[in-house]
Write a structure and sequence with these properties.
This protein has about 150 residues and is mostly helical. The protein has a single domain, classed as Hypothetical protein af1432 (Orthogonal Bundle). Helix 2 crosses helix 6 and helix 6 runs parallel beside helix 7. The two termini are about 30 Å apart. The structure holds fe (ii) ion.
């Protein structure tokens, strides 16, 4: 997979015919997460401080493992790789991030951002990224929410 593929591959293979690209989803999640963290700091920061920089880093990197989970098939379409079948992107994402010297607090966000993280005691920053990610994902699971192309 090449960097430019991220502008055209669907952000998930779990929604058939997914109309949103990896980069569209990624930017949306980063912005939801940042604004949510800022709102939480504004109203609850006195007792529940959120590290906004950590949230932004985690939101950007949460799906980095998809570079290993997905591959481009002969038809030019994204599909799950053999490695991706064994290790979903939260796991490979942590492997990549650790190798690059990403701090443990941010690796925790990568590890816990998806459903696997439901078994983890999430930090506040990980909760913010998890919910931002799911806000930009779950509505697509009800086809009635999705505008048809050209409609
Ligand atoms: Fe993800």
């Amino acid at each position: 997979m090449k960097p430019e593929d991220l502008n055209r591959i669907p952000f998930t293979l779990l929604i058939p015919g997914c109309p949103i690209t990896f980069m569209e989803h990624k930017r949306c999640v980063v912005h939801i997460a940042r604004k949510s963290a800022e709102a939480m700091n504004e109203f609850m920061g006195r007792v529940l401080p959120v590290n906004v920089d950590r949230v932004i880093a985690g939101a950007i990197l949460a799906d980095v493992g998809k570079l290993l989970e997905y591959e481009i098939g002969l038809d030019g379409q994204a599909r799950q790789s053999e490695r991706g079948e064994a290790l979903r992107h939260p796991f490979t994402g942590v492997a990549i991030a650790l190798e690059c010297g990403v701090p443990d607090e941010v690796c925790h966000i990568i590890a816990a951002h998806a459903a696997e993280g439901d078994q983890v005691k999430r930090t506040t920053e990980a909760y913010v990224v998890h919910h931002a990610d799911f806000m930009a994902y779950l509505p697509f699971k009800n086809p009635k929410n999705v505008k048809k192309a050209g409609g």
